[in-house]
Amino acid sequence: MTSAANSPSGDDRSPSGAGYDGTDDSSTPGDLALSGTLMIVYGLFAVFEGIVAIANDEVYTSFGDYVFEFDLTAWGWIHLVIGVLAVAAGFGLFTAEPWARIVAAVVVGLALIANFIWLPYQPFWSIIMIVTGLFVLWSVFNYRSSRTA
């Protein structure tokens, strides 16, 4: 085993070495790019879901009576607006700017709430969208920029 003193460059990056700075740089710009791509796909699916609900109310059926029941046309507009915002925020994530991550987190939070309330109409699809949204949130919150001020 080579120590920092015996190393030609004097730089040992192992956790037990003298050159270890204690930071974990486990996130990469690719993580944020994946989040942006997932948000764009997520948003496009929400747009399509909204268009279908607006164009043809009879496509979706409800399972039971719920307190938060809206007209399907209203749900269509909600999903359409959230989908457009998600696509825009997804493109913003490619810049890796802090404002884009904040906007993405807010939009995904709204989308998660909308999909939770949408569960009676499309249970399987809502669960897929919720899990995807949670992954995007995890990736956005765990991203650490390598730029120093």
TrEMBL record:
Name under which the protein is recorded: Integral membrane protein
Lineage: Bacteria, Bacillati, Actinomycetota, Actinomycetes, Kitasatosporales
Domain of life: Bacteria
Annotated region described as Disordered, given as residue ranges: 1-27
Domain DUF7144 residue range list: 33-144
Organism: Streptomyces viridochromogenes (strain DSM 40736 / JCM 4977 / BCRC 1201 / Tue 494)
This protein's UniProt keywords: Membrane, Transmembrane, Transmembrane helix
Chain ranges passing through the membrane: 32-54, 74-94, 99-118, 124-143
